[in-house]
Each structure stands twice: as C-alpha cells, then as structure tokens.
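Subject: sequence -> structure tokens, single chain

Hey, anyone have a minute? Need the predicted structure for the following. Not urgent.
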Amino acid sequence: MAYSSSTQDFVALSDLHPSLARPNVIGVVIGKTDVRGFPDRKNIGSERYTFSFTIRDSPTYFINVNSWGREEYIRSLSESFRVGDCVTIENPLIQSKEAEREEKFNPVTPSGYKLILSENHSVVRTFSCYEMDTKLLSLLHLPVKDPQDYYSLGDIIANGQSLDGRILNLLAAVMSVGEPKYFMTSDKRKGQRCEVKLYDETEMSFPIVCWDNESIQLAQSWIPRETVIFASDVRINFDKFRNCMTATVISKTIITTNPVETIVDVYTVEQLKVKALQSDVKLEPIYGVIYGYISTLNIDDNASKVVRNRCSTCRFIVNEMSNTCTFCSDISSDLKSTFASFEILVDVTDHTGTLYSCYLSDCVAEEALGCTVQEFLTLAEDKKTALKWQLLLERSKIYFKVTLSPSWRTGMKVNVLSCKLADPIEASQTLLRKETGNKRLCH
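Reply:
Had a minute. Here:
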C-alpha cells in the first residue's frame, strides 16, 4: 500500500528496499530520543550529533530512523517535530539493520531495515496529521506490541526483585504527573527527571520515571485519572533507596497513549447501564466498545459551549471567569499558561437506548471531527453544520471509559476515547454474536 498526496507518492514502509532510488516515505512519529553528541573520530576535538525516531504508516509496520550531522542541523531537525506529529522523509538512505546489536538500544521493529538521514541529501517535512490520511492519526493509539502482552502493576510488585533489570510492557492509567526536575551532571551536562504515578485495578500507585526531554514532554500532556498508557519495553528496577519497584522509560520504549486496541469488551447501551449501576461493581473504570451513533452533537450552536481552556501544566479545565487553574495550585500562576481544547457533550445511541452527556474532548474530538480547535474556530456557521452532519447519526465504533460518579445526573461519567465510522460487516457480525450469546444464556 502506498499513500499519496496531490504532489507526490509515498512508498509504504513495508515495501522499502536498499535498491529503491530516491524514495519518499510518510508516517506518524511514535517514538523519539533526545539529541546527544559524541567525539568525532575523523575530526579530533570536534563532536558529531545524533538522534533517532520511529515512524509508522500502518498497523503492522514501523521503522527506526537515525539522523547524524552537525549540532545546528541535528538540533534544528529534532526541534521541528514531536511524538504524534506526521512527517514525510525525502530520499533517506535505506540500510539493513543488525537486529541483535541495534535493538538492544532501539525500539524493536518488524522491518529488516533502518533509515539514515543525511543533511545534504535528505529532507524531513512536518505536517499536521489532519492534512494527511486520517488513518495515520489512528495509528497513535495502536500499541506496537501484542496489547494483551503486559504485566499488571500488582504482578510486578508480587514478583519483586526477581524482575530487577527486566524489560517488559505495562498497561496502566495515569494517577499523577510530577513536575520536571532539572539538574547538572558531574560532567557538566544538563539533566532532567520526571516521575509519573500509575495505577490499575491491582495497585493504586506505581512510579515510572522519565529521564529524557521527549518522554517528559509527552508525559506533560497526560491527564490524571483519564489518560491510559501502554508502555512497551520499559525497564523494571528495584529502588533500594525507596525500597520499592519502579519502571524507567529507556531508548527502546514506545508509549502508546489511550491504546484502544487493549479494549475488547463490546456492550450495548442497555448492558453498560446495567453493569455500571450494579451495586456490587467496584469503583474501577469500565472500558468497552459500543457500535452505535452520535445522536446529539451541538457544535454549530455556540463555540463557548464546545471549546474550553485547559491548563498547559496539568491539562485540567480552567476557571472561565479568572482563566486560572485551581488544580495545580502549588505552581506560581505566573508560570501557568492555557490552551484552547474541545470539550463537547454528545449523546451516544444504539438500538437499546441512549447514553446522555458523554464527553468528547481534546485530541479525541479533533480526530473524530477531522480538524483542530484553531481550524474549527475559523469555520463559518454553515461549515460547522456540515461538519456536524459528517458524524451525526452515522454508525460508529465508539470506545469509551465509564467512571461511576454519584454526583453526576446519570450516576456515571462517560468519556469517549475514540469515535470512528464502523465497518458495517464488523459491526453486524459482532452484534449478531453478542445477541446469539445472550439468547443461549437465556435458555
């Protein structure tokens, strides 16, 4: 498969081969390391610089990209994109990789090759994913490893020091994101550290530590008690100082935010209401899939009702009157900033009923609508109405998270994690299997 734009064709990553002349590729950035320098053996006394990143263009294929060159070029290139951005690469060098040696420090990829970028011959361009095929954007929510292949936090603690030094996968929700701490190393290099607390149904607080700028910046975008991460290839250690097990993000690690592939339970609206309101259900969130449609989507009414300001530090909705965040109150208000974000209340309906006032928020809303907040705010009212009807009443595959909340009018808070048009055959077969299973239970 090859993607194409109005100006050029792109070679699918699975079709790359060293014999290709001047290939162009496209993909979303799913992993990235910091820039580092090292002595240049050819020019004694000077340094060369490098960083690497991983791009993906399909559910099954991704590849590592290495960049080498002068400090100015490497730093400028690195600063031009982040994890989650879409990039095109013109004329990379395609090399066979030495899997055993290279995958010791780089993400494990299905490709037998790697891409090398040259300052003189290669060009990298960054695009908004909304300018590209929307299939690329959905790849950000697909884990690079088997979504069922992970340790629970309780398993790690139970195994204790026998896992010290092991590389494994985690699936957990974010409890809190610490402030980055900056320091100077003994050899006068700048360092940084950020600790995130994770939780799941087996453990309420487990630390994962980020030491590089890229993972720290990614962590700052996570919303406590809302964001779920699948972290592949993190290192597990026993922290002797704190007498506990910890996880560390390393150069092999790829973190998938809100990984929908790990959610496999299918519900009807009626079944979800019954499960959520059962008195013996624990307080852990319920994750699942509904094949239904958005029945209410008032985005062409009043922009102030669908776009809210969030705190750039903790990403919570800020007070509208003062435009300040009351959640992370320990940080000086002078250091805080805000950004516009979707916060849309939608109704989700299927053949059994309706879930009212579900949250379609932030980047999930941008993906569902196919436009950014800034692009939305520039649209005329008739364009907003047209945008609404692209999604409204269309059969969709909706991933959700339900949190029991007695203060909520319905008794539960529903967050939409993903909303895409459903494959009709997949939806029909899934619902048919579910109905058949229910009838068997009744008999």
